[in-house]
Amino acid sequence: VKTVPGHGRNGYITTDLWVSPDGRRAVSGSWDRTVRVWDLGTGECTHVLAGHTEVRSVSLSPDGGFVLSSGNDRTIRLWDLASGACVHVQRDLPADVHTVRYVCDGRF
């Protein structure tokens, strides 16, 4: 069992957590408006990905290279973990997106 510091001390809750299949990395989303990537070996946060309002859901791609996230802003974002950049935003969805997930072959 590994404990990581979380998203801060301001009462923000972690809304979703995804652990990589190899157990080396975790991705979390929070109402603090960030997605965070964690190295589970060291417990350190390696990326802070910002762009949403409150984050509702996160999902790590099967190959570990990308993260999907959704928030209360009616968007889905695709993040490249090599660079930490947001590489695609699906905007103007009809409602907040509560859950995003990859399927086994890497589609979302």
Automatic annotation (TrEMBL):
Q: Name one Pfam family in it.
A: WD40
What is the designated name of this protein?
Uncharacterized protein
**Organism's domain of life?**
Bacteria
Q: SUPFAM superfamilies under this entry?
A: Quinoprotein alcohol dehydrogenase-like
InterPro entries under this entry?
A: Quinoprotein_ADH-like_sf, WD40/YVTN_repeat-like_dom_sf, WD40_PAC1, WD40_repeat_CS, WD40_rpt
- The WD repeat boundaries are 20-48, 48-89
The protein's UniProt keywords, in alphabetical order, are:
Repeat, WD repeat
